[in-house]
Design goal:
heterodimer; A: 12 helices; about 75% helix; globular; B: mainly alpha; 13 helices; about 0% strand
Chain lengths: ~280, ~300
């Protein structure tokens, strides 16, 4: 009896430990973002006199609103383009047997294994040659390397899992593949599109190396680059308060998104199992 | 339906339905393929080509072919080999820790208890936020003068002077691993959890009736059953860890103790503007990852064409 209670207790201690490990960095970021001046450098679990100065400064001294908008534009357009291009490809790869299909799946898988650095100089050259250096369009193009193979892979997996009977009747009736895709599959692809789209959005939203290398001006930066390069008002100010405020601003919507859509995320992750 | 009927249903030019559908398949795949060639294959080819030249970032049009001189210089640079070693050590240590911790978290989440959904969502959050943010949050917590980690350790009497977490070589490496583990463990835990949830309950009930100790149950039953899923997760995480960049760039910058292959290559490419030499380093990393991928695929651990059935 006592042993069982001890076991229970141990279990809850374990859960508390996991939660603390996961959540404490966020808690500390929030606490630090509410402190300014010298209080930032005192370790206290709750700020003595909390202030929103860091948040105000972030939008006044830096183009942070612009950076958020940039990230949104890049992530939304890259995701939309990927879904659009991947939909027909995934249908073909998932529902039609043809020569070269396995080879193509292999190519897609290996592209998603590409180290970003391996395409960096070639992509830099390409983006500059077509005049997209330091523009959001250039970043959209670069992000396709991450999102397109991923979305194609996940959608193909989803397509495969659908029952064969779905299109068989339509084929017998002589319906074209385009018709089958748009009339039979598309209406029931909602969850698959949401899952893969959401994960692609997160991939593009979090992307750092391309955004760091292919932009120059503060106005074209995306959020990760802006946060990595935040500077103090003077050369002597340590901008940790502002950095933490920026982290909180970006993290809160993501938490809401994850909580609201966790079902899609988990189904997409287990179907894709490609990257984290 | 007979072959003849199928043929007439397929229609024009005497193609069978299968042939006709194969044509449609290529048409359907073409736009995606063109995009992948444009953004992946072409730039990769350019990078490889650059690695045989002396191109500089400021003037990419004017270059001379230099043969394999960049590779010779690369393989003679002790810093490159140090980066290779750091990358491998980082991959082994962090993926190992992530697997262990991921197992613990997945087993915990798999137990029935109130608030499981909430805990599962909480675990997802480190995975969802940008690596740059996790690196900054931990960078602040590990700050040598004002960080909360040093303050706590001092208060508990575990250390008597603040540690320079991000400067001292061994600590810096440990810090980078710690942040990566914090960020990537949820991914591992969720993949393991997905495997755990499809295990048949009857085995565990039978085990309980027979009085098999839980640890033994785990080692003899659970672990062998989730092995395939675990391997897939470990392999993907491993390939991912080999190209690590963001967390190191933000957390420890140019600290040679944490310079991995990606960090080394970007330093050469962008900071020193040496596109030829940097491309040789990038190409080498690509070859290493490609070889690892090829080995994994040929070993048959990941069956590509059966990926749909894998769950």
């Amino acid at each position: 009896m006592i042993r069982r209670h001890l076991g229970r207790l141990g279990f809850y201690v374990l859960i508390a430990g996991i939660l603390l490990y996961v959540v404490f960095p966020f808690y500390w970021a929030i606490v630090s973002s509410l402190k300014t001046g010298s209080s930032l450098f005192q370790v206290e679990l709750w700020p003595g006199n909390p202030t929103l100065d860091n948040y105000v400064a972030l939008f006044r001294e830096q183009p942070f609103a612009r950076n958020i908008l940039n990230s949104l534009i890049v992530a939304v357009v890259a995701t939309g383009l990927s879904l659009f291009l991947a939909l027909t490809a995934a249908y073909a790869l998932g529902r039609i047997r043809f020569r070269g299909r396995t080879a193509m799946l292999l190519i897609i898988l290996s592209v998603s294994m590409f180290p970003q650095i391996a395409v960096l100089s070639g992509l830099f050259d390409l983006i500059r040659a077509i005049g997209l250096y330091d523009t959001l369009s250039g970043l959209v193009l670069a992000n396709l390397i991450l999102t397109l193979p991923f979305v194609t892979w996940v959608l193909t997996t989803f397509m495969r899992e659908m029952p064969r009977e779905l299109e068989q009747a339509a084929i017998v009736d002589g319906a074209s593949d385009w018709r089958i895709l748009t009339r039979v599959f598309l209406p029931i692809m909602g969850p698959a599109l949401s899952a893969s789209g959401l994960l692609a959005f997160i991939l593009a939203w979090n992307e750092f190396m391309f955004a760091l290398t292919f932009t120059l001006s503060t106005e074209q930066r995306t959020v990760p680059v802006a946060i990595a390069l935040i500077s103090g008002a003077t050369a002597y100010e340590l901008p940790w308060g502002k950095v933490m405020a920026a982290c909180v601003i970006v993290t809160v919507p993501l938490i809401v998104l994850v909580l609201a859509l966790q079902r899609y995320i988990i189904s997409g992750l287990t179907a894709g199992a490609v990257k984290g | 339906m007979t072959a003849a009927a199928r043929k007439s249903a397929g229609g024009r030019a005497g193609l069978t339905l299968a042939q006709q559908r194969a044509r449609v398949a290529w048409l359907f795949v073409a736009p995606m393929l063109v995009a992948v060639i444009l953004v992946a294959a072409w730039p990769l080819g350019r990078t490889i080509a650059f690695s045989f030249t002396d191109a500089y970032l400021s003037d990419l049009e004017n270059w001379q072919a230099v043969g394999i001189a960049n590779y010779i210089a690369l393989f003679q640079d002790p810093l490159w080999w140090r980066a290779v070693g750091t990358t491998l050590l980082f991959t082994i240590v962090s993926v190992g820790l992530e697997t262990l911790l991921g197992l613990v978290i997945a087993l915990t989440l798999n137990a029935h208890m109130p608030g499981r959904g909430l805990l599962r969502a909480a675990v997802l959050i480190p995975w969802a936020i940008p690596t740059v943010i996790s690196a900054k949050m931990w960078g602040w917590m590990l700050h040598d003068l004002y960080g909360v980690v040093n303050a706590m350790l001092l208060k508990l009497g575990l250390i008597d002077a603040p540690w320079a977490w991000l400067a001292e070589p061994r600590l810096a490496f440990a810090a980078v691993v710690a942040v990566d583990v914090w960020k990537a463990t949820p991914f591992m835990a969720l993949l393991i959890l997905a495997a755990l949830q499809v295990l048949p309950r009857e085995i565990y009930q039978a085990g309980k009736v027979d009085g098999v100790p839980p640890i033994r149950m785990f080692l003899r039953v659970t672990l062998p059953l989730i092995r395939p899923a675990l391997l897939v997760a470990v392999i993907f995480r491993g390939l991912d860890a080999m190209r690590v960049f963001d967390v190191i760039y933000v957390l420890t910058g140019n600290n040679p103790a944490t310079t991995t292959m990606s960090v080394y290559a970007r330093q050469q490419l962008v900071d020193f503007q040496d596109v030829g030499y940097g491309s040789a380093a990038a190409t080498s990393l690509f070859l290493i990852v490609a070889m690892a991928t090829a080995i994994v695929i040929t070993l048959g651990r990941v069956n590509v064409s059966a990926a749909g059935e894998r769950r």
